[in-house]
Each structure stands twice: as structure tokens, then as C-alpha cells.
Amino acid sequence: MHISEGVLSGPVLAGGWTITAVGMAVGLKRLDYDKLMTVAILSAAFFVASLIHVPIGPVSVHLILNGLIGAILGYAAFPAICVALLLQAVLFQFGGLVVLGVNTCDMALPTVACFLLFGPLLRAGGTKRAVGAFCCGFFAVLFAGCLTAGALALSGEAFIGTAKVILLAHIPIMLIEGVLTAMAVAFLAKVRPEMLAIRLAG
């Protein structure tokens, strides 16, 4: 769901940079520096996963892992995702520097939103935790798709069709990411609960 350079309007670009700047400030302020290695690993996982594109019609899809990143990092998802997108733009010309603010906002804002929305379920045990983790993975991709589609739609009527295709093409990714996030959170809750951004019930 990388948006390329030269596509978005000025107001959309400005809005994306504003939200990203606020998110980065909050994320860095709340970052637990004992978890820097975890942040780096998840940033690298995001970097690699979103490099592998599968073309579907006029768009391409890829794993995002933003729901999992939110469950593990919480607010620190903003700097983790921003660094990965910056490296992708510089090294592989995916997205771009001008649209970095919007691309970061589209990926990281849903991540933090799902962390806040489903945090109570993630803190619970058993089935509730699994449901919360699945919802994090599923809805983080859904919200990211909606933000990306919205950014395109607000930049001109010519992009509305593409915006709809982006949402439809990512439905399988939403399901896959929901299952992957549920499995990963269940595993971490058993072997490394301290890695998760929430305090687990006993």
C-alpha cells in the first residue's frame, strides 16, 4: 500500500506529515529504550514483509504486519514503521520521501488505534486474547487500506477506482494477518510475555 510520488494533493501530504510528526513525537517519548532491539527487529520484519509484492490487477498486495507491531510495540510502532518506510524509499524507491508522511500515517496510525481499541482483549487470557490479537491483525490492515484509499480519493476523482480496488485486494491479507497475529501473540504470551506492549493477565 505504498503511495508513489506525484500522486497526492498538497493538503493530503501536509495532513499526513502533521499526523506522522505527532505520532513520532509520542512514540519516541513513550519508547522503552530497553526494547530498542525489539523495535529494530520488528522494523526489519516490516521492511522485508512489505518488499514482497503480489500483483492483483492494477495494484499489488503484500504482508504488512502492522497489527503485530502494534501488539508488541504500542506507540513505538510509529518510529519503527517510519524508519522501515524511509529505508524502502531510499534503497528501493518504494513510495518516496515526499509521501513518507502519508505512507507512515497510513500504516502506523491504524496500528496504534488497534493497540488502544483491542488492548483490553490482549490483556486478557485464553480466547479473549486470541480474539483481540486477530482483531489487531485484521483491522490494522483494514484501517490502513481505508486511509490509503481515502488519501487517493481526496487527491482526485481519477483515483477513486484504484482506491476501491486497493480495499478489495487486501481482504485476503486482512484474514492472513489476523491469523498470524493471533498465533504470534499466543506464542509470545507463553515464552516471552515481556515483549508484548501490554501487561498480561495471569
Question: How would you characterize the overall build of this protein?
Answer:
The chain is mainly alpha-helical and 202 residues long. The protein has eight helices and two strands, in the order ααββαααααα. The chain has a two-stranded antiparallel ribbon. Helix 3 packs across helix 5 (100-123), helix 3 packs parallel to helix 8 (171-191) and helix 6 (126-154) packs antiparallel against helix 8 (171-191). The mean pLDDT is 86.
Main beta-sheet strand count, sense and barrel state:
2 strands, antiparallel
- Taken from the alpha-carbon principal axes, the silhouette is globular
Separation, N- and C-terminal Cα atoms: 38 Å
Overall pLDDT:
86
Strand composition percent = under 5%
> Would you identify the regions where 5 or more consecutive residues have pLDDT less than 50?
none
- Number of helices in the DSSP assignment: 8
- The helix content is over 70%
Strand elements, count: 2
Largest sheet strand order: 1-2
Oligomer: single chain
Determine the structural class based on helices, strands and strand pairing.
mainly alpha
